[in-house]
Amino acid sequence: MTVVDESGTSEALRREDALLRVEQVQKYFPITGGGVLKRKVGDVKAVENISFDLIPGETLGIVGESGCGKSTAGRTVMKLLDPTGGKIEFEGRDITHLSRKEMVPLRREMQMIFQDPYSSLNPRHTVGAIISAPFKVQGVKPARGVQAEVQDLMARVGLNPEHYNRYPNEFSGGQRQRIGIARAIALRPKLIVCDEPVSALDVSIQAQVVNLLEDLQNEFQLAYIFIAHDLSVVRHISDRIAVMYLGRIMEIADAEKIYTSPMHPYTHALTAAVPLPDPRTERLRERILLEGDLPSPINPPSGCVFRTRCPKAQDRCAQEIPLLRELAPGHFGACHFPEEKQLIPVSPVQV
Amino acid sequence: MSIGGTGDTGGTGEVFLDVKDLKVEFPTEDGVVSAVDGVTFSVRKGKTLAIVGESGSGKSVTSQAVMGLINRKTAKLSGEVRLDGEELLTATTEQVRSLRGKRMAMIFQDPLSSLHPFYTIGKQLAEAVLVHQHVSKRAAMDQARTMLDRVGIPNPERRIKDYPHNLSGGMRQRVMIAMALLNDPELLIADEPTTALDVTVQAQILNLLRDLQKEFGTAIVLITHDLGVVADMADDVVVMYGGRIVERGGIDDIYYAPEMPYTWGLLGSVPRMDVGRGARLEPIPGQPPSLIRLPKGCVFRPRCPYHELVPGNRCDVERPDLLPVTPDHAVRCHLEPAQRKEIAIERLGAHSGQVAAPISTGQGTGSPRQEGR
After folding, report:
1. Which chain B residue shows the shortest CA-CA distance from A228?
2. Which option is the CATH number for B1-103+185-373: 3.30.420.40, 3.40.50.300, 3.10.180.10, 3.40.50.1000?
3. How large is the ipTM?
4. In chain A, whose CA is at the least distance from the CA of B200?
5. For residue B256, how many C-alpha atoms fall within 13 Å in the half-sphere facing its CB?
6. For the domain that residue A306 is a member of, what is the CATH number?
7. Dihedral (Cα; B106, B111, B113, B118), 10-degree rounding
8. Contact B265, B348 (CB under 8 A)
9. Residue from the list B229, B269, B274 with its beta carbon closest to the beta carbon of A259
10. With left for phi above 0 and alpha for psi between -120 and 50, is residue B272 left, alpha or beta?
11. Beta strands A325-328 and B76-83: pairing type?
12. Whole-angstrom Cα distance, residue A279 to residue A271?
């Protein structure tokens, strides 16, 4: 199968000065049988041959439905999970096979923000201890002392620096997410992988956190991988978007192109399914309903994995895996029969 | 009909659910939690009313009070809830139980915890039939199968023998909907029915609700925080904050001519898929209030950027009333109507994409403001 995918696709995806380069990365989770021997009986193919490049200061959104492998993809490129295959380069250095220990110095450069602000903070540590942990782990001694540095960070993310000695349970969900953000930016990383960073928050708080992430990006030239199921948030924050389905990237393009002229039928269905907070537009919108559910990643369909739910599927789709190829400049899609027309006129919003 | 008194949000068709001055209080060790305070609204047959608000706004408690699901031993309820003229708050538990599931039904957010893990889907559905109808078990099972088919579950003959854990999230939510619809209820309360689902499944479920409403003329109360879903489904909208209705109106009033600072904040907070990078979100600063220690004046005062425009600290000392702007549109705010209109145009106009063409004020290019953090 991999042979089919080796056809120079990744060549076109390459970008100069990439901060992070992901090439044909796979992540399988073995399924073991019962009994003492725990014989391997199969694999959950959570991530299958994904490739993308990320340049400094850029935001790549990864969207897809539950079970599409977007979180596993994020964790694998962060090397929190060991890739089964493929290659990950960070600043030109191959980090695919680095051990946990060898990764430690690199953690200064790449950090993560998690979805659940309740379980990603140790309830028995004070906020000060949580945010200063990266300094301790990396042996960094700020000139003005750790506490002053941490209090600056707290102020920067919109927390009251006087709350240095409080515990996470004394904060609301939005404030806890700010604590997680302060911890992530403490050592001025170049890349932050954000895994559903705002989905547990109320709308008004969500907007506060999104704005904070945007401000920090401008201030520190951060690159983000922004993983979320909410397409509106991803579209808002991303420069480019990768759409995943059953472990594979179906389409990757500029955020605007993904919305205005999706070329993969799955992207099309996905974007059409998101209701807009605009009743008059909603009344006029075309609806595409996808039938059925996500197939099992243990035994994915042959050929194109989306074909079982695709309205355009034909015989070829069952036989041949579609490659991620450049369908338009900078616009990559994995489909034998990509859509061509522009679906939604670009709204003249930004003047 | 004036809105201040009846909560009638206009339109035709008979009022099926009429809620007046509903109050729900929970006494706790720390003080009384005033979860719902003076909520008034009505829903007509064949129409959808959306209740919008964030966590702790009282939207779910309101729906539970209507369904008679609030424990009277731990909560104090007052006001009126009339279902087709029949008063529910003063009715006995038995009376309410005979209506629940039959004339009114509820769909909950989390289908996995609302279905019994130990019984098959078929058995749970048949039970819902047997409670309200005098039919044989076999006939009840037949009804269950037919309903599963109608909500779009493939192979219903096989599925009725499945347990909840055998089904995907979307399928379970369909089972919940099937269960709610078994006795052809005239009122359906859906509490965040699609929040746990993926967008493509959400689209299927919303479509299903719309079709069923068209077919049976069901009145729907949709409780959600998702302004996209509201725009897609609702005829009328109630915006709740701190246990109170802060604005109420037809769908277009709320989206294109909102008058309450909280509603502006909500609309400004939502990222839109048809607006790209660069358009900055305008969040509401601060946190939602604690329902135990509510602000003395307007509950939204601590987060409201406009309270200084009201002379004499009225926002600090006086609770505003829900007053009509038009017969179908009411708002709870001390700002002068003219001021509100002006600010609405400025805020929504500054986003121009936020409120598509309809409000064309000619000033679409204001610099994005930066309040809150």
Report:
1. B198
2. 3.40.50.300
3. 0.83
4. A273
5. 15
6. 3.40.50.300
7. 100
8. no
9. B274
10. beta
11. unpaired
12. 17
Question: Which positions in chain A touch B227 (Cβ < 8 Å)?
Answer: 203, 277
User: What's the rounded Cα separation, in Å, for the pair B51 and B323?
Assistant: 18
- What does pTM read for this prediction? 0.86
Chain A, window 194-233: residues with a beta carbon less than 8 angstroms from a chain B beta carbon: 202-208, 210-212, 214, 229, 231-233
Asked if the Cβ–Cβ distance from A207 to B285 is below 8 Å, we say no
B237 sits in which H/E element: strand B236-241
Please name every residue paired with A141 in a beta bridge, in sequence order, or none if there are none: none
Q: Is A345 on the interface with B (CB under 8 A)?
A: no
pLDDT tens track, chain B, 373 positions: 334 444 444 455 789 999 999 999 999 888 899 999 999 999 999 999 999 998 889 998 999 999 998 988 899 999 999 999 999 998 998 899 889 888 999 998 777 778 899 999 999 999 999 999 999 999 999 999 998 988 888 888 989 999 998 888 878 888 998 899 888 899 999 998 888 788 888 888 898 899 889 988 999 999 999 999 999 999 999 999 999 999 999 999 999 999 999 999 999 999 888 776 667 888 898 888 888 888 889 999 999 999 999 988 899 999 999 999 999 999 999 999 999 988 988 887 644 334 433 333 333 333 333 333 3
Residue A211 with chain B: CB contacts under 8 Å: 280-281, 283, 370, 372-373
Q: Are B188 and B221 in contact (CB under 8 A)?
A: yes
Same domain, A237 and A93: yes
Using CB atoms, pick whichever of A202, A204, A232 lies closest to residue B271.
A232
In a domain, A259, yes or no: yes
CA dist., res. A202 & res. A236, Å (int)? 17
Q: In which domain, by residue range, is A128 found?
A: 123-188
Q: Is B91 helix (H, G, I), strand (E, B) or coil?
A: coil
Select from A255, A287, A350 the Cβ nearest to the Cβ of B207: A287
Mutate to test the interface with B, among A217, A236, A241, A310 (most CBs of B within 10 A): A236
Question: What residue type is assigned to position B137 of the chain?
Answer: K
Q: Is B361 on the interface with A (CB under 8 A)?
A: no
B356 touches chain A (CB under 8 A): yes
Of A210, A255, A275, the CB nearest to B228: A275
Nearest chain A residue to B233 by CA distance is A279
